[in-house]
Design goal:
This protein is flat. The longest helix has 27 residues. Helices cover 54% and strands 0% of the residues. By secondary structure, it is mainly alpha-helical. Helix 4 packs antiparallel against helix 5 and helix 5 packs antiparallel against helix 6.
């Protein structure tokens, strides 16, 4: 039983249990800052671009070449780099046909000519080609539309500060 009930002293019994907390008032240092109340989600661009490609492809599954082009363009735009866009396209080109094959297997295993007579493998070939073309297109167009990435592509960069006929910096100029 609690201590305040078992005691014979009525004053101690009415006072209740002993407090275990101590409050100390202190001044906050001037250099202490608080975090803002905003939520900053941390995500990988590869995961976001792969999810965008897969969801767009599954939403437009009934358009065999166009779904890959559109999904690749959206996912490549979110990837912002060619290597990430092509990796996400490779993931999506395996995941989406596997999901469609699974749904075909569950639904009707005998009806594989769902896509205008193409058959499953024809659909997969068109989807993979469209996805990679769209991913390359989206990754190339990302710096032009986003504006946040001010780096110029490597094939367009030119060294600055040299005259066209000047000697390279490693060799002295001879006259």
């Amino acid at each position: 039983m609690p201590e305040h009930i078992m005691t014979q002293d009525p004053e101690k019994a009415l006072s209740g249990p002993q407090t275990r907390y101590e409050y100390v008032r202190r001044e906050i240092p001037a250099d202490l800052t608080f975090k803002p109340d905003t939520i900053n989600p941390v995500h990988s661009r590869f995961i976001v671009s792969a999810v965008v490609m897969v969801l767009t492809s599954l939403a437009l599954f009934f358009l065999p070449m166009f779904n890959g082009l559109l999904a690749g363009a959206f996912g490549g735009f979110h990837a912002r780099r060619m290597s990430r866009a092509l990796a996400a396209a490779a993931f999506a080109s395996v995941a989406v046909p596997a999901a469609i094959a699974f749904f075909l297997f569950i639904g009707t295993a005998t009806q594989s000519h769902l896509f205008w007579g193409l058959g499953f493998w024809g659909y997969t070939a068109l989807y993979v080609i469209g996805t990679f073309i769209g991913a390359a297109t989206g990754a190339v167009s990302s710096p032009f539309w986003a504006g946040g990435d001010s780096r110029a592509p490597a094939f367009l960069s030119v060294p600055r500060g040299r005259e066209p006929d000047a000697a390279p910096p490693s060799r002295p100029a001879t006259t």
